[in-house]
Design brief:
Elements lengths: L2 H7 L2 E4 L1 E4 L4 E9 L5 E3 L5 E6 L7 E2 L4 E6 L1 H16 L2 H13 L4 H10 L5 E5 L4 E4 L8 E2 L6 E4 L3 E9 L11 E6 L7 E12 L5 E9 L10 E7 L5 E6 L4 E2 L4 E8 L2 E12 L3 E6 L6 E5 L1 H5 L13 H12 L3 E12 L4 E6 L10 E7 L13 E10 L2 E9 L19 H20 L1
Parallel strand pairs: 25-27
Antiparallel strand pairs: 1-22, 2-17, 3-12, 3-16, 4-11, 5-7, 5-10, 6-9, 7-8, 9-11, 12-15, 13-14, 13-16, 14-15, 17-21, 18-19, 19-20, 20-21, 23-24, 23-26, 24-25, 26-27
Helix pairs in contact: 2-3
């Protein structure tokens, strides 16, 4: 390719390096109670709540504090059985009656009061088994309760969990004991440090993510369950790996490719095997060697000039200029695409899109900046869409419009057009007009 074309494309290159792989993983999570110290309160007999002493979620409670009083015919009968055994002086019956009262969660102080006064209590007061914060309160005074019903929970806040989700490809980078740094929008100036406490053994079949549990100290009680957090997991991986910048990788539907810079205006598109994917770099298992120079900017334009056998078509300077002029006529196109990755922190998405004849692009996967006209919240991994792509600079492109596929819509495609007599610019304009007409019909 002539130097002028290389300059117009804005080609930038980098060197393949072998270095310690940066396995830092960034994700988001939610603060929640330490479930190892979360106590759930369930009744062991049926009855009615006579008095509720802890009435609001979030109220602090201390161990031994009254929670509620319960009237239950079962508890009344159990007390009468103990009194009957005591009157008979049968030690074996007394022991059996005491064990039954304890099994029904009657407090020791209530049992001792019964033995001393020999008076049956109609309502038994149940107390908090530990100190903490009241949560998940499900009962009110006068309610009928029965075994198996969840009445309330008591959580401890001196330590909390943050549960985050990582992509399937990142799960292998994380191990228990890895350091984790957490920040919150609630207190943006603070940073908490914790460790990976547990990696859940299963992958979510819908989101293809793995859950990671992180434990944090919370002595000042600043962390509250339900808070949204940003997690940075510092992987202890120290193995050296052959790696390239993430932006140099071209993902297609069936393979991953990079463009080699051979010098003297010569380039070659080759297939590579990809290993671990970090925040800024990608591990290369095969296809490249240390010291190779690769294209890191405008590589998708160069790759579009390469055949499947990695041999580039020859272009002279005049032909390149003519094609560049043609392509510049079409600033936006609609194309069927699939969302591979959403990167809200960078305002970008990775799309695998169909061939774009108007720009002479093959089917491939690449990163796009998301314009302000598109809400990142509506974009999900694996979603099939019609994407409106905009050329915002010579080698910069953005996603400016999204139409979600459904059973009643068909993606605007290049396949139904006459490529024999239509120029690239005309085909791009037809793509736009075709999709605009389709969208207008739906709105009616």
């Amino acid at each position: 390719i002539s130097p002028d074309v290389v300059n117009n494309f804005g080609v930038k290159t980098g060197v393949v390096e072998k270095d310690t792989f940066d396995a830092t993983v960034r994700t988001v999570g939610y603060v929640q109670y330490d479930e190892d110290k979360l106590v759930h309160i369930h009744p062991r007999v049926e009855g009615w709540i006579e008095k509720l002493f802890a009435k609001s979620e979030g109220d602090p409670v201390t161990q031994g504090q009254p929670l509620y009083s319960l009237y239950s015919p079962t508890l009344v009968n159990a007390q009468e059985e103990l009194l009957l055994a005591m009157n008979r002086g049968n030690q074996r019956l007394i022991s059996a009656a005491l064990e039954r009262l304890r099994a029904l969660q009657v407090p020791n102080e209530a049992i001792q009061k019964l033995r001393d006064s020999r008076q049956v209590s109609q309502a038994i007061i149940l107390r908090a088994p530990q100190s903490g914060v009241l949560d998940n309160l499900q009962v009110r005074e006068g309610m009928f309760v029965q075994p198996g019903m969840s009445m309330m929970s008591i959580g401890v806040l001196d330590h909390v969990w943050a549960v985050g989700e990582v992509f399937e490809r990142q799960a292998a980078l994380i191990a228990e004991g890895d350091e984790v740094r957490m920040t919150l929008d609630y207190l943006p100036e603070r940073e908490w440090t914790g460790v990976v406490d547990y990696i859940y053994p299963s992958i979510d079949s819908e989101t293809r993510t793995a859950r990671v549990r992180v434990r944090f100290a919370n002595d000042d009680l600043a962390l509250k369950p339900g808070m949204f957090s940003q997690l940075t997991i510092m992987s202890n991986t120290t193995l050296e790996a052959l790696q390239i910048p993430r932006e140099a990788l071209i993902r297609t539907g069936s393979q991953s490719r990079v463009v080699l810079a051979l010098g003297d205006g010569k380039f070659k598109s080759i297939e590579v095997d990809v290993g671990r994917v970090g925040w800024e770099t990608v591990e290369i298992l095969s296809g490249l060697e240390e010291g190779d120079r690769i294209v890191t900017s405008a590589q998708f334009l160069l790759d579009s000039e390469s055949s499947r056998t990695s041999d580039f078509r020859r272009m002279d300077h005049s032909d390149s200029a003519e094609e560049a002029d043609e392509n510049s006529l079409v600033e936006t196109v609609w194309v069927p695409a699939r969302i591979e990755d959403v990167m809200p922190d960078h305002g970008m998405v990775t799309l695998s899109h169909a061939p774009i004849a108007a720009w002479n692009w093959p089917a491939m996967s690449m990163d796009f900046q998301v314009a302000d006209t598109v809400s990142l919240e509506q974009l999900k991994d694996g979603m099939d869409i019609h994407a409106e792509l905009e050329r915002i600079a010579e080698d910069k492109f953005a996603l400016r419009g999204v139409h979600v596929d459904d059973d009643k819509t068909k993606a605007p495609s290049d396949e139904g057009m006459d490529h024999g007599e239509t120029s690239n610019a005309e085909r791009g304009q037809q793509d736009v007009m075709s999709h605009q007409g389709h969208a207008t019909g739906e709105s009616k």
